[in-house]
Design a protein that fits this description.
Layout: E1 2-6, H1 11-33, H2 37-64, E2 66-70, E3 73-78, E4 82-87, E5 93-98, E6 109-116, E7 119-125, E8 131-136, E9 140-145, E10 149-154, H3 158-171
């Protein structure tokens, strides 16, 4: 048994980014056609690299994020902000958490974190100086509690992920 769950960015965010790039391309075309050469060059010089950076940050990084539930444990891969191997022996309990309404799981301080349009990936500090690794594209997550930290995981298929984790935890 090894099931992998993805945590992609919301499609509306990607569509908005592509729409922004299209608007900039139209502005560049208009600038060149109307004789505003340097305006077009400046738009290319500024918007080009920023578009590439945001495409990488909003599409590539979340696309690489995954949670694998295996017989040995949970493999969390969400580079460059969070990655971990969580053996089942280290998991004390698993329980649902809502990142919006549960006061105990609201971030007091972020360490390495990316948060945009509901997507969260990184390491945060909770109340009581407890550390948590969060990788989710939704507010309702499954918390895996270990002795050293919490893992707040919310893939797109939270129901399947919860079922897999519950199946393994019931055998412990």
């Amino acid at each position: 048994m090894a099931n992998t769950y993805k945590i992609p960015m919301k499609k509306i965010v990607l569509i908005a980014l592509l729409a922004f790039i299209a608007v900039v391309a139209a502005a560049v075309t208009w600038s060149f056609r109307s004789g505003l050469l340097w305006t077009g060059i400046c738009l290319i010089a500024v918007a080009g690299p920023l578009s590439i950076l945001y495409w990488y940050m909003l599409y590539i990084n979340p696309k690489r994020a995954s949670i694998t539930v295996a017989d040995e444990g949970v493999l969390l891969a969400a580079p460059p902000f969070a990655s971990a191997v969580i053996p089942w022996a280290a998991v004390e309990k698993a329980f649902p958490v809502n990142l919006v309404t549960d006061e105990d799981f609201k971030a007091v301080k972020t360490k390495k974190m990316m948060q945009f349009a509901g997507y969260r990936s990184g390491i945060i500090e909770l109340k009581g100086s407890k550390e948590a690794v969060v990788v989710a594209n939704r507010p309702d997550v499954l918390c895996l509690q270990t002795e050293e930290r919490f893992y707040l995981l919310g893939p797109s298929d939270i129901e399947g992920f919860t079922t897999d984790v519950d199946a393994v935890m019931s055998q412990k």
